[in-house]
Amino acid sequence: MINIMTARGAPCSRRGRGAGVARRPLALPRIAALGAILLAAPQAWAAEPIHHELRVALDPRTGRIEVHDRIRLPSDLPLAGLEFELGREFTPALGSALTELVDRPAAGGLKRYRAKATGDGRTVEIRYSGTVGTAPVHPEHGMPLADVSPEGAYLDGSSGWYPRVEGRLLTFDLSVALPPGWLAISQGSHSDREPGAATWQAATPQDDIYLVAGPYTMYRAQGDSGEAQVFLRDADGALARRYLEATEDYLALYSRLIGPYPFPKFAAVENRWETGYGMPSFTLLGPRVMRLPFLLASSYPHEILHNWWGNSVYVDFGQGNWSEGLTAYLADHLIQEGRGGGANYRRSVLQKYADYVAGDEDFPLSAFRYRHSGESQAVGYGKTMMLFHMLRRRMGEEPFVRLLREFYQRHRYRAAAFSDWQRALETAAGAPWGSFFEQWVERAGAPVLALEELRVEALAGAGFRVSGRLRQAQPGPAYRLRLPVAITLQGNGELEWLVVEMAEGEAAFSATTASRPLRVDVDPRFDIFRRLSSQELPPSIGQFFGATTLTLVLPEQAPAPLVDAYQALAEAWKRRFAQIRVIGDGGPLPAEGAVWVLGRANRHAAAVTEPVRARYRKTLGDSADTLQPAASNAGQSLILTVEEGGRTIGWVGEASAQAIAALARKLPHYGKYSYLVFAGDEAHIRERGQWPVLASPLSAQIGEAQVPMGALPRESFLGAQVGWSPRRGR
Prior knowledge:
Number of strands: 36
Strand content: 25-35%
């Protein structure tokens, strides 16, 4: 039972505290990309933080901000002078204790200063004011780095709104004078000690200070692991209740799985812009984003979990960002695993890597900093996620959970690197793990596998022996692998399992079975990070946006509103994907590269619809009726993909000219799907799916009859270690 308390226009009464990383976009599938990631430069944090005592006054009418900051220096900082950076919009009072360092320029619209300690020799006082600018603005959602206006305020450290000291974590006391009817959100715990001001104290180390304010309605519910909070710009009790329940659920899960939640609260805050940003102890969600039906079971737990990995245990970016992949594994993957979809999720991860990452675009995990493209996400999120999955399979469930808990306890409020994970594993296992980390962290690429020389012989008396050879076909040295192999047996579809150890480029295997073997499947649950063969991949939308060359074919004879809408789609995609060229449908289709055939009136529509009809009509079911290119199809937009001549061709059949703009935003975020059905001018998703894989080089039939693989047993669920199961109603 949740008791919800609401507040409007008064400071909320309890705030989170903990340590933070600069804002990151949520891992939001199937919606428009929400913004560039703003991360501090790679650095090793000093042990003792600087303390800021900030008094802030906001003037929303003019956009002006006034700040008085008393900085308390830690004992290990030299007293010769504190160097810091401040936004160019601000004009500090210069004097004998403060000097602008014009010979030490700062990047990102900042200025560098040196301040001398006064009084007891450990305190620096700075006063400054200025009008907050609105640039730079992200091209998609338009959110600035800083904004103070009648609609609300947003400030983060990248704008230089407070004195930033490179290489130092910080703690702070923050007091903000607010306009009547406004609430404010930051890290730390809240107090009402100052009338007319909202005050927060963050006593645990942070790496940024955020300030969000505006005319909010607040909802709250106290749980065993922390307080759940929701801030909405317009009151909506039903929406707030869903977020409060989900927040309590996830805080309890991760507290039991990893360790106590490091903040008093987690807040879902409605933003003015369509963003999905995660900060320490709160997240900023756009109005449409916040109401996406899938968010509570995908991106939302991901951002809650970042308060353990990234906002409490920091990332040493100099050695690669391990946090995003581990968070994806323990949030997005864990929830799908609990619903029986872990193997499908891992297959999608491997599919994205195959679709987006060509040989010259690959890089090692040690070089991953943040997501800025499909390639960087496929490696930094996907490969790292698979690294932790392979660790778990080798260690076992209980040792893996112990590793997570011990690592969190040891490294909380410290920066950690892949090398720290290696040391933790070696301590836990009492054995070296260097070769494992070298091949998965320091080396770019992935193994490519082939199954060869499969044969079966009947044994004298009874039983059978099945044998074969596994080969690695990628360039470069071999990977050390432990490959699961499933053998389907005659009778009841039972599976026999074995693990093939590969220390070299080839490995023979054999197994004795009581019943006749019917087929062999290598890594059928996609437990190993590897480059999938094209035969293991259905044609998908992601293959277009990851292609080296992508051609958009416009319908020249379509009505003018449709032509204009498709030209706008082409311009929008060209701004995001450099490999695109645009042609009309008057000539033949290109012979090479991926091709989008745009429009029901396109002369080449049948080049996609006819092969789909021949191969997959049964898969589409009722949606097969929409395969008529020229039909209006009752307001449905149909997206199809097919492989022809060794390349992927797709077709966009629009419901209306208005729907094309929505499709332009949405299609790049449905990368794993082969077909999609949208409804109406706003393109609301109605159906999605993947074409069946018709063959795989890692699956082999024994004999002439085509036999399906035996039923895979349900895989173990990590959440069961702490007695948790995902709510299917979300």
